Automatic annotation (TrEMBL):
<dbReference type="Pfam" id="PF02347">
    <property type="entry name" value="GDC-P"/>
</dbReference>
<feature type="domain" description="Glycine cleavage system P-protein N-terminal">
    <location>
        <begin position="503"/>
        <end position="778"/>
    </location>
</feature>
<feature type="domain" description="Glycine cleavage system P-protein N-terminal">
    <location>
        <begin position="48"/>
        <end position="482"/>
    </location>
</feature>
<dbReference type="GO" id="GO:0016594">
    <property type="term" value="F:glycine binding"/>
</dbReference>
<comment type="similarity">
    <text>Belongs to the GcvP family.</text>
</comment>
<dbReference type="InterPro" id="IPR003437">
    <property type="entry name" value="GcvP"/>
</dbReference>
<dbReference type="InterPro" id="IPR049316">
    <property type="entry name" value="GDC-P_C"/>
</dbReference>
<dbReference type="GO" id="GO:0005739">
    <property type="term" value="C:mitochondrion"/>
</dbReference>
<dbReference type="InterPro" id="IPR049315">
    <property type="entry name" value="GDC-P_N"/>
</dbReference>
<comment type="function">
    <text>The glycine cleavage system catalyzes the degradation of glycine.</text>
</comment>
<keyword id="KW-0809">Transit peptide</keyword>
<dbReference type="InterPro" id="IPR015424">
    <property type="entry name" value="PyrdxlP-dep_Trfase"/>
</dbReference>
<dbReference type="InterPro" id="IPR015422">
    <property type="entry name" value="PyrdxlP-dep_Trfase_small"/>
</dbReference>
<feature type="domain" description="Glycine dehydrogenase C-terminal">
    <location>
        <begin position="824"/>
        <end position="944"/>
    </location>
</feature>
<dbReference type="InterPro" id="IPR020581">
    <property type="entry name" value="GDC_P"/>
</dbReference>
<keyword id="KW-0496">Mitochondrion</keyword>
<comment type="subunit">
    <text>The glycine cleavage system is composed of four proteins: P, T, L and H.</text>
</comment>
Amino acid sequence: MWSSARSCLRSTRSSLHSAVLLKNRNGTRRLATATEKSLFKPLDTFSDRHIGPNDAEVQHMLNSIGYESMERFVDASVPPSIRLKEAAVDNAAIQPLSESELFGRAKAFAESNKPFKSYIGMGYHNAVVPPVILRNVIENPAWYTQYTPYQPEIAQGRLESLVNFQTMVMSLTSMHVANASLLDEGTAAAEGMAMAFVAGNQRKKTFLVDSGVLPQTISVLRTRAKGFGIKLVIKDFFEGIKDEAIRSDLCGVLLQYPDVNGHVKNYTQLAEEVHSASALVICATDLLALTSLKPPGEWGADIVLGNSARFGVPVGYGGPHAAFFACSQRLQRKMPGRLIGRSRDATGKPAYRLALQTREQHIRREKATSNICTAQALLANMAAMYAVYHGPSGLRQIANKVHGFTKVLKSQVEAFGYDVENQCFFDTLTIDTGIVEGSASAVHRVAREAHINLRHIDDIRVGITLDESMSAEDLVRLINVFASAVSANAVSLSSLQPPPASNTTIPEDIQRTTPFLHHPVFNTHHSETEMLRYIHHLQNKDLSLVHAMIPLGSCTMKLNSTSSMIPLTWPEFGGVHPFAPVDQVKGYLEMIKELEIDLCKITGFEACSLQPNSGASGEYAGLSVIRKYHESQGEANRKICLIPVSAHGTNPASAVMAGLKVVSVKVLSNGALDLEDLRSKAETHKDNLAAFMITYPSTFGVFEDGVQEACKIIHDNGGQVYLDGANLNAQIGLTNPATCGGDVCHLNLHKTFAIPHGGGGPGVGPICVAKHLAPFLPTHDIIATGGSKGIDAVSSAPFGSASILLISWAYIKMLGGKGLADSSKVALLNANYIAHRLAGHYSVKFTNGNGRVAHELLIDLADFDKKADLKVMDFAKRLQDYGFHPPTCSWPISTAMLIEPTESESLDEIDRFCDAMIEIRKEAQEVIDGTQPKDNNLLKNAPHPIPVVTLSEEEWNRPYSRQRAAYPLSYLLEKKFWPTVTRIDDAYGDLNLICDCPSVEETESMP
Ligand SMILES: Cc1ncc(COP(=O)(O)O)c(C=O)c1O
């Protein structure tokens, strides 16, 4: 290991390196031996590339902090009581693959997915990704490695793109405000239901769902309704509202427009009736259809939601996709998820930022009705770029083509003698196959022979949904399935007639008459040159991992390797419908199984569900599993959830959503969990104790000694332990959640397992559970998955965001067991080295008894506030001038920064970061000493963008030079990243919520 200079952390690079050393010292014979040994091993091994520091650097860091070997260092960092005795995570357990071997295996999986053309619909369409967006957004690390834009001065590009997304949604739906994405359509509907429940003051408990709503959405609603005690009624909407028992207790209704069978109805009058019952109208819809249909905002909807994936995001076996969510003005401050607004910077220039950040779950904790944190920013950006690229007339053309093909299909199948159930439609038909011998099953058989999937509705009816990806030849093939099933003559392309443009199937009263996407941004960048430049113009404003380390504590911003990203955009993975028959997705299922098995080995648990789309969704799923387990034991009364005050805000929010009552547990002044408080609360609530949620290592960045004792206290009092696995990067191969004493944990694949953060999503939050909880894992109504007594679905798709599972699968397979364990060790070492370098300059808030932190460290800046009025944000903004993304600010302690370097950062980069922090410390000292004024200094005025450092002599009223403002350390002459605006005014932004793109008139009057 790292104890000697000839250790082999890196099998290839180090063997070559040591061979050279041997040659220099000992002559050629030994060199030959070393070379021969490596001759049959691949050279493209991954851990060499993934782990930042090399052997010598590792040794240097170990020596700097006073350890001669890695083993000694790890022994001092991780409590012996929880160290794994046997290596459950080594190369025997998970064998490493080289990059090229990985591609070979991924190719084999791809080839075992059958490339059928799916017209199944049900909210999922084949999308066409414009190549300029494919190459320059989804395949571009400058977009996909960004973090959530909490630091707006270095995130104006993605903020603008997310505003484009919001504007696109607002314009197409005709709603007052839209957010910057939610996880998927089902969970968006559940968020809508929770909003309706809150709007009715949680007194009215009936929520009516039209039977035309997507079945997977209904399943997610069922899960969510249970936690809130909402009564879900699924009925034909037209009947339901007449029922007085429903009407008097009604908080909201959900309808689908067009519905799952393709019907398009006028809901104007029903919306009035719902409003007269003081309930909310929630409409799930399709953005492309809204180019032709009267937008819900014009007929009375209060909330409009759906999935934006058909705007250029591959279906990917279910995700990830950006759900959208829009609402009326009166509900805007209750809307879940992130909202981007326009504010101004310190010079008065307009600038974007996350609006109403205080609404985020970190603050609301147990008062929250939503736990959404990570969402789908990258996919929202793709969808927004698609709208920018096509503009309103391009979208209208696409909609006309899809609708026109559907009309041709309808007239052809009717000519063969079939009945089409819905005469009024956009892109979906329900076809009665009664005239075919063998009815629907015969039609499905013929379709399968033509490599086509149709929707199974029942024995008689089949469903078909058309999309943009369809060629005229595809249309002919589809029509001929219906011809063949009734033994009619096949049609040819030349025999097809386009329907007359006037022949619309959408009644006049629900046709769209209002223009959409009239904003300049949607009417400018239509050539590829313009689009390419627009994408790069935005990208250049944003700091991502392509520029520098992003040391955000609790976020684990590590390398998102190119090799693990490559298979993601292969069409064999991108083009698969989530409800395709299982014999067509063998490659996907095998990859999913392997990932589940590896995650179980890593966590020490028995079973895994990959369904949750984010960490918070995993928390909710895990707690719901615990509830169901207690119910199965006849203990439905167990509803108390103990949560330390230091927990992430999503923990209490998820507990509330799962129907639990939160009781806080104290932490001691040294940051450790207060075991006595835990014991006393567990005993007080022993008859009703459901669960205890704990993050390990703690959010204070320390491996606490008492974790097993804490878990025992809970188990002794009848509760289950939920371990928040956000910090799993510190554990792999050293300990695991099962050994710590947990019963269930979630993992953030978008942290520990290298799925890129994408500027705020996608994410995947699988849960792993002990044997007794395995039967309760989430199920799915359409594709069998989960446990035998499982909870209902927590996501729309059976395996959540299935396509990005490939990234974590590749990451694990390429590192292998040893590479995974080595990654955790170096993550610990990098953090401890930073703690060592910053000690003496800053106060490292918490360490263990040996003076060690875990994989992250908290530095407390409270003293600077007291002495010099310098806040955490002043340090953060000044770091931007030094070219770094600031660490996590003011969490879990308001006066602190949480720093997490990860294993991927090299010693050079870490030293550069420490140099910057130390230099800023000196600048702060000048304010403390009075050489710089408290209200006009390098930190308070940070960041310093180009327009500020180029102010005229008269305007430059600062007690420091421009040189010092922009280039305080010499490395910046080479590596300068310029924030594009100066500090943004948060308070102004929240008071003046502007959440859409400027209009043509506003653009004219802008500076
Ligand atoms: C400790 C902890 N738990 C839970 C979460 C929630 O994860 P997600 O953002 O994927 O919902 C986070 C997110 O940063 C976290 O740091």
